[in-house]
Amino acid sequence: MHDMKVLHIILNVASNREGLCALSSNSDNSYLAYLGRSLTGQVQVFDTLNLKPGIIISAHESPLAAMAFDMSGTKLATTSNKVFNFLKILLLWTFFKGN
Description:
By secondary structure, the chain is an all-beta fold. The protein contains no helices and 8 strands. The protein has one domain (21-94). 18% of the residues are buried.
């Protein structure tokens, strides 16, 4: 890579000491997920193709520890137990530990 330039700067983001974020690798559904700025457990999804903020998901009542997109770039898993279809703002699955 060479001659890289800044395309967009995302302002007003939450403090994120751990650098928690996720980037989808799908060229048709390219999104960046990062901590929401107002509430604990919130995820902001940014459309990297159109350089526009997307939706905000109130994912958890506690701080987020991890998040990742699926290969299609349409589902976002947070803190290892919830999976969202963020395009439809829909919680798909919640995983629990078995006995």
